[in-house]
């Protein structure tokens, strides 16, 4: 049952099939669309959801409810401590009939004051996302946005895209979206589990949200697979606490990388920040492990937070080395010290918010070793 961010599945064993094939089961799924308005709780246990369908208020009950109602979630407050930060907004345009400098590749332009993204979405269309720092963007209705894009952004984009960029502005199909960031801070609640952007968000600069979501689904699938009884809410809640630890290597690596890259790529008047930004670009341009390593982290192929920290500080050290060669000076030594300090000030707060122990030493967390409370039962229900 699809309920606007909440899935309800009725999964039952078929007795006839089990007599013929004792290791097989059939799954009966009922699909219904509606809008969830609230969780149904009883004595601190989530029993299901209240939702509206066809103008009528209805209820859906199941022993496990998985809430995944997105970044605008109205259900997360009872399941986590949401600390949502909005560092910037994306202004979106569709560019038509033009070619990227490197076809079939995504492009990040290190603009002023912040990055500009381009990537193909069809054979003739390119999506452009202009990052505007802060929670307020120029008004679209009174023409401020069009003027901002023409005067501030347009001079910074590749010449291959310039005419199409101006044409998209004149066409007027401009959309805006706030960029949200929220560390995962769950309240383990019997009968419920939180997933997706309702649970954890990162700056969309790296496009890592779907990678984290799919990784979380695999982790949860492996946890639920051996279960045959979901009706002991307390035991199930204790067991599923391991989800929040097992997801950390992939999720925290991508979250930290997204937040750190955004801060590094934003323009700054500080000389040390300028050097860090240029060092990051030049480090990636070196190729080899300096390029493939960050890309593996970005894509989730290398879910090791320690590798991320090593590459991040390798960029900082590379930047300091560029400053000090061929001859160091007191001024350059001072900028180099500020560069290392600034790099630390960028990445360590993000790591702290993600959780140092769960991020780097998940095997030391007790929930990492939780065993499944497996009990055979003829029927089981899952509300997703």
TrEMBL record:
GO cellular component, one term: membrane
Bilayer topology term: Multi-pass membrane protein
Main location (coarse class): membrane
The keyword Flavoprotein belongs to this UniProt entry's keyword annotation: yes
Catalysed transformations (reactions): squalene + reduced [NADPH--hemoprotein reductase] + O2 = (S)-2,3-epoxysqualene + oxidized [NADPH--hemoprotein reductase] + H2O + H(+)
Gene3D superfamilies according to UniProt: FAD/NAD(P)-binding domain
Pfam families to which the protein is assigned, alphabetical: SE (PF08491)
Pathway(s) the chain acts in: Terpene metabolism; lanosterol biosynthesis; lanosterol from farnesyl diphosphate: step 2/3
GO molecular-function terms, A-Z: flavin adenine dinucleotide binding; squalene monooxygenase activity
Cellular compartments annotated: Membrane
Nucleus keyword on record: no
GO biological process: sterol biosynthetic process
Alphabetized UniProt keyword annotations: FAD, Flavoprotein, Membrane, Oxidoreductase
Uppermost EC category: oxidoreductase
Entry EC number(s): 1.14.14.17
Cofactor entry: FAD
Residue ranges of domain Squalene epoxidase in the record: 62-334
Entry superkingdom: Eukaryota
Functional description taken from the UniProt entry: Catalyzes the stereospecific oxidation of squalene to (S)-2,3-epoxysqualene, and is considered to be a rate-limiting enzyme in steroid biosynthesis.
Similarity field: Belongs to the squalene monooxygenase family.
Name of the protein: Squalene monooxygenase
Source organism of the structure: Aquilegia coerulea (Rocky mountain columbine)
């Amino acid at each position: 049952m699809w309920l606007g961010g909440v899935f309800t599945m009725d999964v039952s064993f078929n007795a006839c099939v089990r007599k013929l094939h004792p290791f097989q089961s059939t799954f009966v799924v009922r699909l219904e669309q509606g809008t969830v308005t609230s969780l149904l709780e009883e004595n601190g246990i989530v029993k299901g959801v209240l939702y509206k369908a066809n103008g009528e208020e209805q209820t859906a009950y199941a022993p496990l409810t998985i809430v995944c109602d997105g970044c605008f979630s109205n259900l997360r407050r009872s399941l986590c401590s949401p600390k949502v930060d909005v560092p910037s907004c994306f202004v979106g345009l569709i560019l038509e009939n033009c070619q990227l400098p490197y076809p079939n590749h995504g492009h990040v332009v290190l603009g002023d004051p912040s990055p500009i993204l381009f990537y193909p979405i069809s054979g003739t269309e390119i999506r452009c996302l202009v990052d505007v720092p802060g929670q307020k963007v120029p008004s679209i209705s009174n023409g401020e946005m069009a003027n901002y894009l023409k005067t501030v952004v347009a001079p910074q984009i590749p010449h291959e895209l310039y005419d199409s960029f101006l044409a998209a502005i004149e066409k007027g199909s401009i959309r805006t979206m706030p960029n949200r960031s929220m560390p995962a801070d769950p309240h383990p609640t019997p009968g419920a589990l939180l997933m997706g952007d309702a649970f954890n968000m990162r700056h969309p600069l790296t496009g890592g949200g779907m990678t984290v979501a799919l990784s979380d689904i695999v982790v949860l699938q492996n946890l639920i697979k051996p279960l045959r009884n979901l009706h002991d809410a307390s035991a199930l809640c204790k067991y599923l606490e391991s989800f929040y630890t097992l997801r950390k290597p992939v999720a925290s690596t991508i979250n930290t990388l997204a937040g750190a890259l955004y801060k590094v790529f934003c323009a700054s008047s500080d000389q040390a920040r300028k050097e860090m930004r240029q060092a990051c670009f030049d480090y990636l341009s070196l190729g080899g492990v300096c390029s493939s390593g960050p890309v593996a982290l970005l894509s989730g192929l290398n879910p090791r937070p320690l590798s991320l920290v090593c590459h991040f500080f390798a960029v900082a050290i590379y930047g300091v080395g560029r400053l000090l060669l061929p001859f160091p000076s007191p001024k350059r030594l001072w900028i180099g010290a500020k560069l290392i300090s600034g790099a630390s000030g960028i990445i360590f707060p993000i790591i702290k918010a993600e959780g140092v122990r769960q991020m780097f030493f998940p095997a030391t967390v007790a929930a990492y070793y939780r065993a499944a409370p497996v009990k055979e039962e003829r029927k089981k229900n899952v509300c997703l």
